[in-house]
Structures are given as C-alpha cells and as structure tokens.
Amino acid sequence: xxxxxxxxxxxxxxxxxxxxxxxxxxxxxxxxxxxxxxxxxxxxxxxxxxxxxxxxxxxxxxxxxxxxxxxxxxxxxxxxxxxxxxxxxxxxxxxxxxxxxxxxxxxxxxxxxxxxxxxxxxxxxxxxxxxxxxxxxxxxxxxxxxxxxxxxxxxxxxxxxxxxxxxxxxxxxxxxxxxxxxxxxxxxxxxxxxxxxxxxxxxxxxxxxxxxxxxxxxxxxxxxxxxxxxxxxxxxxxxxxxxxxxxxxxxxxxxxxxxxxxxxxxxxxxxxxxxxxxxxxxxxxxxxxxxxxxxxxxxxxxxxxxxxxxxxxxxxxxxxxxxxxxxxxxxxxxxxxxxxxxxxxxxxxxxxxxxxxxxxxxxxxxxxxxxxxxxxxxxxxxxxxxxxxxxxxxxxxxxxxxxxxxxxxxxxxxxxxxxxxxxxxxxxxxxxxxxxxxxxxxxxxxxxxxxxxxxxxxxxxxxxxxxxxxxxxxxxxxxxxxxxxxxxxxxxxxxxxxxxxxx
Length: 503
Ligand SMILES: *[C@@H]1O[C@H](CO)[C@@H](O)[C@H](O)[C@H]1NC(C)=O
Ligand SMILES: [Zn+2]
Prior knowledge:
Layout: H1 3-29, E1 42-52, E2 55-64, E3 67-72, E4 84-86, E5 91-94, E6 96-101, H2 114-123, E7 126-131, H3 143-153, E8 160-163, E9 165-166, H4 169-172, H5 175-183, E10 189-192, H6 206-219, E11 222-226, H7 232-235, H8 249-255, H9 258-272, E12 285-288, H10 296-306, E13 311-315, H11 317-321, H12 343-355, E14 360-361, H13 393-401, H14 408-422, E15 439-449, E16 470-480, E17 483-487, E18 490-491
Parallel strand pairs: 1-4, 1-5, 6-7, 7-8, 9-10, 10-11, 11-12, 12-13, 13-14
Antiparallel strand pairs: 1-2, 2-3, 5-15, 15-16, 16-17, 17-18
Helix pairs in contact: 5-6, 6-9, 9-10
The chain binds 2-acetamido-2-deoxy-beta-D-glucopyranose (NAG) and zinc ion (ZN).
C-alpha cells in the first residue's frame, strides 16, 4: 500500500461507518435485521377475500408487533390507513399448520434440513410445522435429543417449528423420562405400531401406548400413532421373491393391505376408551396419522368417536391426489406407508373428509436423498418410503378438491384450525384479533406447472411425486408473526421463525 492509500483509509473507514449507521437506523425502524421482506411492523393487509371464522369478508387485517390487532370490514378502507398492502382479489387466510413433517435435522440434513424444509414450507403457505421425532439422528426420544433438535432449529427456521417427542419401548414405562420430555416442551408424543424404518426408533404395542396415554393425560397433550400392524401371514411378500415383480406397484400394495391399518386401529381402540370422560386417561388424546384405508379402519374410528373416545384422524394430500391404478411401474416417488390405495378408496377418503369423519390434513413430508429412492432400479420393495410434498400441499389439496367442491373455509378448517387445536396452538390457526399474524396470501385461480422453472426449495425436488403436475393455487406471500418471510420466489434474508415449546 502506498502513502496516498494510507491517508485515504481513515476517511473511507469514516464514510463506511456513517453509511452503516444510517443503514442500521433505517433497518431498526423497519424490519428487524432482515426477518421480513416488508419494512414495517405496523400495517394492514387488505383483500376482497379474507377468510375469518365469521366468514369470508372484504376488508383489511391490521398487524402490529407480529399480531393481528384489528379486522376491518369496510369497502372504504383505502386512504384511511398509512401502510396498506392491497392484495385485491387474492385470498388472505391463516397460514397452514402442518402437524406432520420430517425435517431430518440434525443427523440426516442431506435428506432435508431446517433451512431448506422451512423455506419450502414458507413458499407453500405453511407458517407453523410440528417436526416428527424420527428420521433425524438421533431420534427425539429424550430431553437430551430434544435439545439437539432445538439447537439445530435455532436461527435456521423461516417458519415457526414445534416438536413431537418419540414414545418408544425404552421410555414408555418410564414416567419420569416421559414427564421430563413433556416438561422440556414437546407438544405430544408419536409412536409406531410397526417398524418405523429407522433403527433407533423401535415400534410400540398397546401396552406402551396405554402407559404413554396415562402420562399424557396429566399434560393434556396428544399421542400420534402410525397405525399399521404387520401381519405375519402377509409379510412374506416383502421378501425378495415372495410376491412378483418388485418394480410393479401392485406388488408393493399387496405387502401392506388395509387389514394392517384395521388391525392397528382395532388394537388402539382397546386403549382409547381410557380417554373418555371419567376414564383413567381422561385428558389424553389419540390422533391417528396418515389414514389411507377409508373402509373398516375409518368405520372403527367413527364408532370410537361416537362412544366418546378422545380421538382424531388425519389423511394426507397424496392419498387424495393419487390412486394405485395410475402409479407407473418403477416410479418409487409414490412409495409411502401406508400405501396409496385404489381409486375407489380415494373417493371414500374424500367423502370422509367432506363429511368431517377425517378431521384434518397433514403433509407427512418424508423425503430422503434420491439414491435411496432407487429411481433407476424402480424397486418398490427396497426404495425409501416417503413422499416429498411440504411445499405443494396447499395447491394440491385445492386442485384435487375442485371435483368435490371444497371451499376456502374447509381448507382453513383442515389445514389451520384443527391442526392448531391438536398441537395446542391457541394463538394460531385463524385470522382473529390477538392471534399471531401468520397469514398466507394466494390466488386459487392461478394455474402453474410444477416443472424445473418453478422455484422449489425442498432439498431434493426430483423425488417428489408432484413434479410434472399442473396445479391451481399460487402462493403470493407468507407472513409469520407479521414478518413477510416469502414473496414470489424470494425469502427474507434472515431465518427468524420461533421454536415453539409446549408449556
Ligand atoms: C427412567 O428415566 C430416567 C431419566 O431418563 C433415568 O434416569 C432412569 O434411569 C430411567 N429408569 C429406568 C428404570 O430405566
Ligand atoms: Zn411420517
């Protein structure tokens, strides 16, 4: 460096610090250090279609300090307020709450991670997700492993994230261990009645589940159960030469018949009777995840509801969008458990959802790396089972639901209100005064092709069964606690989602 530069340097440094000072001034006044793409903390979101618990209104939602502080139903709001984002005819509704997502972080972040998974969630209009206790490593089954989850999530999530803990044989009969996990903030527990596919997450039986429910009762938190019981008679089909061409979807479908789901639900109902009012586990709740069998299994759940058991059930968009008949041989992107069944079953699932017998929807976003999907081999029996979907669930539900005449209010019920209730999120799930300003703005009528040109944020988009589909329903903007975290292909600079812990 020569002398001239040495003299200029302090001057430049001074100039730089001035610029920095004004930048800080400006950004502190507006967004908090890059958390939002919109530079105000007090503003109004206006639209002709705002979905509220009192119906769809034309008006504006006032947001201040991350919460909804007023809702004005007024055609003549313009000019009155200072900071208005007018979305015209686009739909403004509560952000989606996905109670069933596997973000695999820490330990298998190459499958999906907190940054990628929550960016994809935000791009799809999801403002809160509850992360499953498995597919990450180690599985979230203790206070120590929950701590690892929370540490991995902090400062790397674009939406709010809560956690389910695992109910496994190791902790099921240890009330001290379960209470510690619940005290540490998991929103409830999750268990499997069949092998989970993950070695450090072993399956549970009705005895474990009964013990788990009795602890959960005190906390009034739910147990989520993967409800399939392997029957020995049929499981030989999963061996390599037992049941025909492993590239054929029907071979895989036969390895996991509806009777597996039915057997599991039947067994569950022997313990859910404890959750009835006056029962030994009153206060606990059982939630059947990703129901695929819309026949006997669903009938049993309906019966249990009628007799007063505290039980709910979800299904997932892939069971509502696809049917076994249309899954090409070798296309393992469609492999999940329980499997996608035939078209008649799909029809029954839709009817059950419309009737209210299925309570809510979740993504069961369960991706992996492309190599484990065995896309080249196309071996359904060996490929990883799990559908990658978190970014697409809103347009998928909407698009495939058109045929059944679904409404915006139903979408909100299935994707926001009821999931909020299940996860104990009383300040979320509705456009209502006092709630978090968790909002999705989208255009139901706008169609798009899910191809390479579409901005995708999931880590391995090539394994998603939805790629190549034409969908209806474009997400324009996603707000989480008042921060505009996603807008037309772009995310906020900083990841400012909260880890939400049960108290
Ligand atoms: C129960 O869990 C606690 C906390 O993890 C542990 O210290 C204790 O050893 C466990 N008890 C049994 C009998 O395994
Ligand atoms: Zn799952």
